[in-house]
Amino acid sequence: MMALCACAVTTAAPVPPPLAPPLVPYVLENTEVRDIRAAALHRDYQLFVALPDSYATSGRRYPVVFITDANYAFPVARSIASRLHKHAGLEEVIVVGLSYANGESGNYSRRRDYTPTVSRNGGDRSDMPGRQQAFGEAAAYGRFIATEVFPLIARQYRADMDRKIFVGHSYGSLLGLQILLTRPDTFDHYILGSPSLWYDRGVMFDREKAYAAGHRDMPASIFFGIGSRETLAPGKTRSRAEERFDMVADLRDFHGALAAHRYPGLTSTVKVFADEDHASVFPLVLTHGLRSYLKRKQ
């Protein structure tokens, strides 16, 4: 009789695949991030800073572009400014991106910081749970730029603070208009794309009239840009209420009102870009706006 042997059968453990090398994040060259406390606003922000290629070796000072909605617009502006220098011979610039408030969504932060009033048309619901939507703090945010952002940039970089450029789009352009109609000499050049002039039933038209009543000059250079498709929706009657506004017509009306005052210190241009809409027009506005101000290399 044969004895049965219960023998353990062993198999080699599978060899794990070699670990893939860790992915390296893509970093924009010559860029920095600086934290900044907005003391009067009791909020924290970041500044995204792009330095020109020649910054490390030149020793000279550069014009400064301050751009809103930095989470989207900063890398676009940095790239366009660099290409305009390399391929069109325009001056190099420092680009400073103005971020949204730390811990807040972009929509929440920009609606509060970029709008001049609490709209009488009502507002969108907050996208931040537990926090009521906020509007109407553009004046305070503009003071933050002038009194806290400017000094930091002047201390830390070789910035020509006599040549400051503001760039905004949509609500960002409302912020620019708030500054323009309060202290126009805060910036030397304004690039304002697709301003939301319908906001709060056209409140910026009222602000423009109030400025004109108290001033004989507006020392500013302005480039307005907008897409030709930013017009009234078919079948709608024009007004300055949500979904019934014509942004192209509003911008032409606003520009016409500025021009009618014949301010000796004001230079203002409007360009309507064919076949572009609110989402697509910004890079063109920025490109043409920078070209209208920056000098060419001699």
TrEMBL record:
Q: Which UniProt keywords apply?
A: Hydrolase
Under the heading SUPFAM superfamilies, the entry gives:
alpha/beta-Hydrolases
Region: Disordered, residue numbers: 109-128
Annotated Pfam families:
Esterase
GO MF entry, a single one: hydrolase activity, acting on ester bonds
Q: Could you tell me which InterPro entries the record lists for this protein?
A: AB_hydrolase_fold (IPR029058), Esterase-like (IPR000801), Siderophore_Hydrolase_D (IPR052558)
Q: Which Gene3D superfamilies match?
A: alpha/beta hydrolase (3.40.50.1820)
The protein's superkingdom reads: Bacteria
Family according to the record: Belongs to the esterase D family.
Q: What is this protein called?
A: Alpha/beta hydrolase
Species this chain originates from:
Pseudoduganella dura
